[in-house]
Amino acid sequence: MKAIMIDLDGTLVESERAWLSTFLKVYKELSSLSGLDVNEIINIIRSYRFKLIRVSDPRAFDWDYILRTVSSKLGVRTDFYIEEEAPRIAQETKLVKGAIETLKQLRQLGFKIIIGTNGNWKYQRYILNHHRLIDIVNEIRTSDMVGCLKNNPRFFKGIDISVGDHIVFDVHYPRIFGLKAILIGNFRKHLTTAKLLGIDKLEKPSIAIRSIHELPRAICSILGT
């Protein structure tokens, strides 16, 4: 049975806007407490997160850990907990059109489906449960479950094909690790991540498609079935 890993945020679920409102609250609170400009706060958080990402540390996506660490560095204290916002955030996310139908079709075709996300379980579980994705797939992998991010081959153990909207984490690294990779959407969307990680030349996807509706055909094309 071939194993397909499919990304969550941006691939199965539209969540960016839902998370953004919470992050803006965090930036503004830290700005108010520290006296620094909001853009300075954003740059400090980004810099610290990418230090963790470079060493494949799951805490790069543990938003409360990031918040507490940066607050400490700034010499301030906040009672804001992002995990408490997670249930509301989940309700504001939307399934990508055709996501459920595509997952069910892939299962019917005999593929093992794993949702793989850099996000931490304590946040992502609300999204997964809200949209009942746990009931459809064979396995869930979050970075804290595996102990690394998608820039570590251990994350992709037992996987044949990686699928997602992120040119770096869903395509570039899986291709380096010897997997086939399918990009959904515009590859330019996450080029900033590549730049911040010092990646000069990105690996190309095995196949690039516009929407998740095309995924079953793309997978069968790669496998020659």
Short account of what is shown:
This protein is 48% helix and 13% strand. By secondary structure, the protein is of the alpha/beta class.
Q: How many β-strands, per DSSP?
A: 8
CATH top level class name of the largest domain = Alpha Beta
* Cα shape: globular
Tally of distinct domains: 2
Helix proportion? 40-55%
Task: Return the string of H and E elements.
Answer: EEHHHHEHEHEHEHEHEH
Uncertain residue segments: none
What's the story with the biggest beta sheet? 6 strands, parallel
Superfamily (CATH H level) name of the largest domain = HAD superfamily/HAD-like
Fold-level CATH name of the largest domain: Rossmann fold
Helical segment count: 10
Structural class: alpha/beta
Strand order in the sheet with the most strands: 5-4-1-6-7-8
Strand content: 5-15%
What is the gyration radius calculated from CA atoms? 18 Å
The average pLDDT is: 96
Through-space gap between termini: 13 Å
Molecular structure report:
This protein is an alpha/beta fold and 225 residues long. The protein folds into two domains: 3-15 and 93-223, Rossmann fold (3-Layer(aba) Sandwich); 17-89. It is built from ten helices and eight strands. It has helices spanning 16-34, 38-54, 63-74, 82-92, 99-108, 121-130, 143-146, 167-176, 191-196, 215-223; strands at residues 3-6, 13-14, 94-95, 112-117, 139-142, 161-164, 180-184, 207-209. Helix 1 packs across helix 2 (38-54), helix 1 packs antiparallel against helix 4 (82-92) and helix 4 (82-92) runs parallel beside helix 6 (121-130). The protein is globular.
